[in-house]
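subagent[fold] <- orchestrator: predict structure for attached chain, return tokens only, no commentary.
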Amino acid sequence: MSTSLPALITEIGRRARAAARPLAALSAETKNAALIAMADELLAREAAILDANAQDVAGATAHGLTPAAIDRLTLDSARLRKIADAVRAVADLPDPVNEVLDEWTRPNGIRITKVRKPIGVIGIIYESRPNVTADAAVLCLKTGNAVILRGGSESLRSNLAIASALQAGGARAGLPADAVQLIPVTDREAVRLLAQADAFLDVIVPRGGKSLIEAVVANARMPVIKHYDGICHVYVDAAADVAMATRILVNGKCQRPGVCNAVETVVIHQAIAEKFLAAAAPSLAAEGVELRADEPAFRQLSALGYQPLVRATDEDFRTEFLALILGVKIVPDLAAAIDHIEAHGSHHSDAIVTADEAAAERFLNEVDSATVYWNASTRFTDGGEFGFGAEIGISTDKLHARGPMALPELTTYRYQIRGDGQIRA
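subagent[fold] -> orchestrator:
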């Protein structure tokens, strides 16, 4: 297969580009009907999809994947219904395509309108659960974009079965046949070839580990929308409510430690550090959190008898642990907290806990992250929690999308100019 891989990627790209134009012209009603048909087809093919998934799970088990990874991979009837329900939920969302963003008339009489339009062809490379195949496909289709998917090798059979159902349902409802395509091989060379297929792709979105994202960035010939590390912080200000800060920190670190919006470092104003650590330590210990503390925090936590406790290195404050491990840093003031976050964070999600409105507003305005919180958990950085209904990922870029990427972020815009014979002098 590897000898024919370049030809395969070229053919998939050519078909996607051919599908993009008629897809972009479809009405919202047609696209929504196609999504409903896709959801129906997913359920109609339950036996085939679950059989394919069982084979993937058996292979993952044989290769020694962790129980958590196998759980993320596994589908059953209930999970498949949730996938279908999520597809229907996207059909219910407002269609951003053709939304008028702005309009005005110039002194010479020409009328200018700025209108949302599909991007064209989107490539999505992901290492995740099989539901991402459906989520990514339907979000792209809702916005009139053709999509090329490349999933993880451990879920190839599941992804192929889900993609086949989506293709069949969409075609039955009037979508172009190649609006959704999935690269049917596990060869890693496919990632490089897809990233270089700028003749066909308008943008590429990598979702996965740092090595995957860096490989895509290194090879891409088109814009890349990246989802880099989630090195997220909670800053406990001198004016923080200690009980509130404890709840926010424990939720941010412990509710789901393996996700990108989980807290990795707590930064504490020195004026409240002793009081806060005494209050938070029992809750963190009860969750089994290992603390990696700077020297002032280490001394205070040692006096409390906290275990497990280690001295932090500078690298600890630059690490996305994705586990029950938390960095602890004590700072002299708000400015030092902001400096630490800028130097060590990943511009994903950061929070301040304080009753001081001026301090909060400074934090919100000076911390250069995609999402910045005042008195709330970083765990809310999610398309569903933001009220977007769904998301393609969390972008840590600044252009053209930042934060949870929902339907509007899968569009571009076009200027439409209407006149009645004007010429430029």
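orchestrator: received. Logging for downstream: The radius of gyration is 24 Å. The CA atoms of residues 277 and 301 lie 7 Å apart.
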